[in-house]
Amino acid sequence: MRIKQLEYLEAVIETGSINEAAKRLYLTQPSLSSAIKDLEKEMGITIFQRSNSGVRLTADGREFMNYAKQILDQVRLLDDRFKHQQALHQSFAVSAQHYAFVVNAFVELIKEINSPTYKFTLRETETENIFNDLRTFKSELGILYINNFNRRIINKLLTENGLKFTPLFVAKPHVFLSRYNPLAKRHSISLDDLTELPYLSFEQGENNSFYFSEEIQSTLSHKKEIKVSDRATIFNLMVGLNGYTISSGIISSKLNDDKIVAIPLELDDPITIGIAQHQHTVPSQLSLKFIQLLKNHIRDYGFKIIGENDDKA
């Protein structure tokens, strides 16, 4: 096994095609295919499922690439430090649904490492992209929610992509709306109270399945509905149009000023927010630190971390 073969695999995964990877690597398609088959034969596994639409990692392939990715990361660190005489830079990537506490933890992580050079990525993205990013090793962690409605589909995708889900906390549904909205004075809000207001939700791309929605009760019909792609827009529309969305109840005044409030929704539909990651990946120190910072922020908002003792600070 050679490092170059691992780099070939990485290119195929990133492009989803042996032909496209060959172009990127300035190789012929037959020579790239031959190198991959030689590696599969040497390891005694099938790494890719091949089809007319491209290639996809097998279960063995996902586990193999978990280890290969760690090797490639270390090789690049060595190159940066000694071949190119650069200071070691730290790298970390996370993909998430649109949660303020994830951004808070990401900011704190960068502040705490205090490194002169780093390459960090935070992808607030569509739910399906979280699975794609983890499957193709673009991100080390994914943050998303599971509830009774989407549990079967999400668990199926986790299994198919060789991922595990670790619950962080359970949240009761809340309505996010403008502080200036008359409903903001309520102690709680019912679905009937929201009938005449514009319903705001995050778009989910081409695969706009109800099961991928970031908002619970996604199958309900609404008189007025607006889809957006980012958190800044959704908050602006809450203020400008008296719109609302349904989420976890965690909202950051630091990131979103104090114009948005979270009011409990009169609905028994709890959501479990947690972390998705590869089953066989050895977590990096940065990912462990990020998870701890996530937990700190979640506790700050009064939520109990699943699996921790009640008396834990």
UniProtKB/TrEMBL annotation:
InterPro entries: LysR_HTH_N, LysR_subst-bd, WH-like_DNA-bd_sf, WH_DNA-bd_sf. The lineage of its organism: Bacteria, Bacillati, Bacillota, Bacilli, Lactobacillales. The keyword DNA-binding applies. Residues 1-58 form the HTH lysR-type domain. Keywords: DNA-binding, Transcription, Transcription regulation. PANTHER family: HCA OPERON TRANSCRIPTIONAL ACTIVATOR HCAR, TRANSCRIPTIONAL DUAL REGULATOR HCAR-RELATED. Belongs to the LysR transcriptional regulatory family. Coiled coil: none annotated. It comes from the Bacteria. The keyword DNA-binding applies. This is LysR family transcriptional regulator.
